[in-house]
């Protein structure tokens, strides 16, 4: 993990002190709410449906146990005893009173954390593969570059008020586990024929009202020049992006409208920065600075490669459960004798991505005992232990069971992505949490889940797509009709992973469904797949082979509330 310097630490603590002053002036009536709003947003504080919401930055998803314990303390003492881990690898709280917000910022600063640029029209958290630095298929560790990007983009004076929020994802692996083509900028680390490290750069991806897959703008940008190239992209966007229409303000709209003209403008700006800007070349990343940052991401001192070839011991009547957990929640590692372990945050009784303070404490203890004090927040809203010795796997499973983390469902139907939806978000048209709970309860039979196999179910409470419904094999989108909650179903989406194939948005299978119909619709879709799949065929492949028609027919056949309403208005 990156280790804060004295400068980093002083910077974050000064920011917390500045926020306290701003808050106190607002509470005394000396700083108006309209003036205070951009200041609190720049520090991650929203006003949501019922209460303030804080988004805590977890850069590229890396946490240490001390930080997680502090998050647990904040949940316990200031919120309603839980936090929510998001698809952008951050942590959110939904119930912290605004008058206590400065206290929370100071607690975060104590452990080198903050909420800076987790909101507002700026460059947000840089995300990456949760297996970064440990994946066997990785060519280049993206974390040092993500950290350099984080430092460069934090409070960048030119990009503090962009037309809209801006998201960057980076991966260095052969498989894209960071969904880079769904981002404003997607970065693929690679090596050229000479062995030099550089980036393939994609631009203009995004979800929302107009889902767009990013386009390749540069095949190879040397790593030294990547900040300059990104600066050129964001500068052109800042200059020409629309500010007159909130729904057309994202860079994807500009790229789609201008096409090659946008690419030409970026490459012209790139050359101009390097050749004409005063000290433009100063934006090149010096080797010594990359090496300084990369030193934080070397193999931890406690890692000792050992002979691999893990063979689980027999554990009597627990063997099947342990074996299932090994297959689903335990992942290959680049260091011999080690595995990565996912702690599932998807189970009955809690919203996807939620963890209580006790569960955070338990995960921190597991990290200390079994993962050298380190954890990751995954894009799929789970936690991951990156440094587990194979010899400790049974003990980790036992500890995970005790904390409610051991559901062997990673990659299965109940390992769904879901935003908080209308229960919390002021923008949401419909609730996500009750739908997620109903589907989870419907598919509790592990034998059935395993027979269904790999499937991505993603759910958003509104068109802003925080639940990434466009990229789900099954997508669920909450919509509003005359003040009622309805849900649109899409099929065939992909995030760009090896399982899903090239990134593509799912397609709608018909009119929306009422809330109480959704679990039946999902079951009908799954039953159709099971009835018509070929041997060994996964859900996404069956959908692509058959097309939408049989799934639409099955979904329409279980309409009840909507069928009655349609008949009444016919």
Automatic annotation (TrEMBL):
Gene Ontology process terms (BP): sulfate assimilation
Boundaries of every Nitrite/Sulfite reductase ferredoxin-like domain copy: 53-111, 351-401
Pfam families: NIR_SIR (PF01077), NIR_SIR_ferr (PF03460)
InterPro entries named among the record's database cross-references: NiRdtase/SiRdtase_haem-b_fer (IPR005117), Nit/Sulf_reduc_fer-like_dom_sf (IPR036136), NO2/SO3_Rdtase_4Fe4S_dom (IPR006067), NO2/SO3_Rdtase_4Fe4S_prot (IPR045169), NO2/SO3_Rdtase_4Fe4S_sf (IPR045854)
Gene Ontology cellular component list: sulfite reductase complex (NADPH)
Signal sequence coordinates: none
Organism, as annotated: Azohydromonas caseinilytica
Residue ranges the record marks as coiled coil: none
Sequence ranges assigned to domain Nitrite/sulphite reductase 4Fe-4S in this UniProt record: 119-272, 418-555
Cofactor(s) recorded in Swiss-Prot or TrEMBL: siroheme; [4Fe-4S] cluster
Record GO terms (molecular function): 4 iron, 4 sulfur cluster binding; heme binding; metal ion binding; sulfite reductase (ferredoxin) activity; sulfite reductase activity
Name of the protein this chain belongs to: Nitrite/sulfite reductase
Keywords, comma-separated and alphabetical: 4Fe-4S, Iron, Iron-sulfur, Metal-binding, Oxidoreductase
